[in-house]
Amino acid sequence: MMAVILQVDFPSEGPFGESMSQAYRELAESINLETGMLWKIWTENSQTQEAGGIYLFDHAANAERYLKMHTARLESFGVKNIRGKIFEVNAALSAINQADFLSR
C-alpha cells in the first residue's frame, strides 16, 4: 500500500465541539463511503477559527480526487482559503511511532 495523508484546513466560524459533532454527523458517515479513504481525524480550533481534517488514503489518486470534490463542496458553502496538501507516508519511521494503520 502506498498510503498518503491528506491535510485540509480552512477558516471556520464554527460550529465547534459538541455542536460540530451533531451538525456534521451525517457528513462524517458519508465520508466513510469515499473510495480509498481509510480514516479521518476531524480538526478544529475555535480560538483561531479554523477547521479541517487529516485523512489517510490508500493512494494519491484517491486523495487528489477527494480533495477536488471536497474543495468544491466547501466552496459551495461559501468557504474560502481552503488549503489542501498531500503527503506520502514514511511507513518505516511511522511504525516506530505506533502508526500501526499501515499493517492493516
UniProtKB/TrEMBL annotation:
Top-level taxon of origin: Bacteria
InterPro entries assigned: Dimeric_a/b-barrel, YdhR
Coiled coil ranges: none
GO molecular function, one term: monooxygenase activity
Segments passing through the bilayer: none
Keywords: Monooxygenase, Oxidoreductase
Pfam families xref list: ydhR (PF08803)
NCBIfam families in the record: PRK11118.1
PANTHER family linked: MONOOXYGENASE YDHR-RELATED, PTHR39169
Protein name: Monooxygenase
Organismal lineage: Bacteria, Pseudomonadati, Pseudomonadota, Gammaproteobacteria, Moraxellales
